[in-house]
Recover the amino acids of this structure.
């Protein structure tokens, strides 16, 4: 039977129904899946040390046959697994303290690679940090070791070891690679200086020397970025073509009045963003812009300029926020800024009485109200706009695609401005938001008070509580945040609840509230409101504290188990304080090891959200970045956005060029590309559609 990309792996020699089931567990069903099941790391066995040359105090890699093994109990009841390895130069003992289970894995006769330090213990002894069985007792032992000495290590699963995977792939690699078609247009491949697909797959699965996999990885990385950029470029193309926007004129009436009445100078970043927005809104293309900036960089004022530009052109502008508290807060802030201009914003939220809502909707529909702020209540059917010219969406990732679209559809073809307080690295922004234009606010107005960040340990607890008490006595308020992760949700929630009780005792007579993700949204919001109004001094919370809520009196952010948070998340939390005039404090109560304490200290020294996001991306990859998952995050398997900036740029340019000539990928030569994208992104197009 001729092999095809969609041939089930079960039909490969050496894979029966049982093993096929195990493969299925790691997402491998077909030959194509198997080809793309690439090693997650490599062991460099090109630098194997002959056993005779093992030197105490050095790290080395040895390869030898297992000649004997045993489990040695010690007095401290720690069981040590030992095995003796032999190569053509000598023998050496290996010892694995506390890993008696290896007795079931490592067997006499096997060819084994071990890597680790050589110690002195009744002679020389290796204490492996890792070990790989290269061949079974029966195998003649050439196999991997003859082929260049770089050993690929595959993601494995129970009942399917990386060695078995390596053997299956090794046996069929050449045959499988033969059926692969390179569907990347050749001119694109040449321009980005990429290797052909077959070479890439061979290089990744069977590198000839250390590092030889890299050109292969880059090729596969480009492919996945290219697919993504094609989807994004298409969304952008559709959005631009769909409907012309209204064309506003610069009238310098309300906007100038606002500028003159502001109690502060705009930052250079704010001015630039306003210039971008003005250019968008006065051109005949619709604006699709993302305004990205850390908490406190002043996004609201920038949005307000855009809103007034619409209003002075005789249209309405709407600002939607994810919760009632936030909407009310924005309503108040915007109201204050607009007061000198004699404009009162309309605030529409669900908790208003039916009568009030009817009256407000009436004023919106008749055009009496031109500046509107609100929650999801805005997108309900009963809400009609008189002439909606601009839609601003705060914390845009908190809304689903449908919700954003529903608001946008309230107008003919309104301009769209999305706000995000989650700074992300540029490579990621170009990837995730490739269909949007982006403005960035980095600079923070000086008026904001400083947040001092400190790392403390369990032994400092009494002092930390005393500090919180003191701050409360001075009229301050404190957040105490607990991480709650799905895997241990019950235990984590209990810890947060217990802590609320402990704090109630320790801080009496101060009042302590608790909010967590298991509470109903309205209960959460009610507690949050009590904290904002100063009825609660301390709020114990899991990470559900609203982004953007202003509690000027909150001067302490105490974070338990900070090592369990990503840096970007910690930064978001830190942004909850420092919103008033008083100096604020972020205290990280570290429970981890030295290394994690160091990471936290580095974080404590950095205030720039973009730098932190870069670091977070390097540490944890795209999937964990705050806010990214909700916005339709997907996994990039080969591309590393922390280091592949050039590939992101190249794939974006190439994709835009392709889409410009063939927006639907309908040309015959683009057929395979289109098919691959449809396989990969079932909901791809919708994911990126913003209006
Ligand atoms: P965010 O970007 O977090 O939404 P806001 O728009 O809520 O920030 O602004 C935070 C605070 O800073 C507000 O009180 C706002 O009035 C104030 N602010 C905004 N721009 C400036 C500026 N250029 N100088 C001083 N204060 C400013
Ligand atoms: Mg804001």
């Amino acid at each position: 039977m001729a092999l095809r990309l969609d041939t089930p792996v079960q039909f490969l020699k050496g894979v029966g129904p049982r093993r096929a089931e195990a493969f299925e567990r790691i997402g491998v069903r077909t030959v194509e899946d198997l080809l793309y099941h690439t090693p997650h790391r490599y062991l460099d066995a090109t630098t194997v040390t002959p056993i005779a040359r093992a030197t105490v105090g050095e790290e080395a890699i040895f390869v030898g046959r297992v000649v004997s093994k045993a489990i040695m109990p010690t007095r401290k009841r720690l069981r040590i697994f030992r095995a003796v390895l032999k190569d053509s130069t000598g023998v050496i003992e290996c010892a694995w303290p506390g890993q008696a289970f290896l007795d079931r894995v490592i067997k006499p006769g096997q060819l084994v690679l071990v890597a680790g330090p050589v110690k002195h213990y009744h002679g020389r002894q290796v204490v492996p940090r890792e070990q790989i069985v290269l061949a079974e007792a029966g195998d003649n032992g050439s196999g991997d070791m003859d082929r260049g000495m770089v050993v690929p290590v595959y993601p494995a699963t129970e009942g399917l070891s990386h060695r078995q995977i390596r053997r299956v792939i090794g046996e069929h690699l050449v045959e499988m690679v033969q059926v692969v078609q390179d569907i990347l247009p050749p001119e694109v491949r040449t321009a980005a200086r990429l290797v052909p697909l077959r070479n890439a797959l061979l290089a990744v699965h069977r590198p000839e020397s250390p590092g030889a996999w890299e050109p292969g990885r880059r090729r596969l990385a480009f492919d996945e970025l290219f697919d993504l950029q094609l989807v994004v470029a298409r969304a952008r193309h559709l959005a631009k073509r769909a409907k012309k926007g209204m064309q506003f004129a610069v009238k310098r009436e309300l906007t100038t009045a606002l500028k003159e009445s502001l109690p502060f100078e705009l930052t250079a970043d704010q001015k630039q963003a306003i210039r971008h927005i003005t250019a968008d809104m006065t051109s005949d293309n619709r604006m699709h812009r993302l305004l990205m900036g850390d908490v406190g960089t002043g996004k609201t004022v920038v949005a307000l300029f855009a809103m007034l530009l619409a209003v002075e052109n005789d249209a309405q502008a709407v600002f939607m926020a994810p919760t009632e508290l936030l909407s009310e807060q924005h309503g108040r802030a915007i109201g204050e800024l607009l007061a000198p201009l004699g404009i009162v914003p309309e605030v529409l939220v669900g908790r208003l009485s039916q009568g009030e809502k009817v009256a407000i909707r009436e004023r919106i529909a008749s055009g009496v109200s031109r500046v509107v702020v609100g929650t999801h209540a805005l997108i309900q059917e009963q809400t009609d706009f008189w002439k909606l010219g601009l839609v601003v969406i705060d914390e845009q990732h908190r809304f689903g695609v449908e919700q954003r679209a529903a608001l946008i559809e309230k107008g003919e073809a309104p301009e769209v401005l999305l706000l995000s307080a989650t700074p992300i690295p540029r490579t990621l922004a170009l990837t995730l938001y490739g269909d949007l234009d982006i403005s960035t606010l980095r600079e923070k107005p000086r008026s904001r008070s400083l947040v001092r960040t400190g790392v403390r340990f369990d032994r400092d607890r009494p002092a930390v509580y005393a500090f919180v008490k003191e701050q409360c006595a001075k009229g301050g308020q404190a957040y105490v945040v607990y991480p709650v992760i799905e895997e241990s949700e019950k235990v984590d929630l209990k810890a947060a609840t217990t802590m609320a009780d402990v704090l109630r005792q320790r801080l009496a007579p101060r009042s302590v509230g608790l909010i967590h993700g298991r509470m109903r949204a309205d209960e959460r919001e009610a507690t949050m409101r009590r904290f904002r109004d100063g009825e609660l001094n301390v709020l114990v919370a899991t990470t559900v504290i609203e982004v953007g809520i202003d509690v000027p009196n909150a001067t302490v952010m105490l974070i338990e188990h900070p090592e369990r948070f990503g840096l970007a998340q910690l930064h978001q939390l830190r942004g909850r304080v420092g919103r008033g005039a008083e100096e604020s404090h972020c205290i990280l109560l570290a429970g981890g090891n030295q290394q994690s304490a160091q990471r936290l200290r580095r974080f404590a020294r950095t205030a720039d959200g973009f730098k932190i996001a870069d670091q977070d991306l390097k540490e944890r990859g795209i999937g964990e970045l705050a806010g990214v998952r909700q916005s339709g995050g997907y996994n990039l398997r080969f591309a590393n956005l922390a280091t592949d900036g050039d590939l992101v740029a190249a794939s974006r340019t190439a994709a835009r060029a392709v889409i410009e000539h063939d927006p639907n990928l309908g040309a015959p030569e683009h057929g395979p590309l289109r098919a691959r994208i449809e396989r990969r992104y079932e909901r791809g197009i919708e994911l990126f559609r913003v209006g």
Observations:
- The chain has 23 helices and 21 strands.
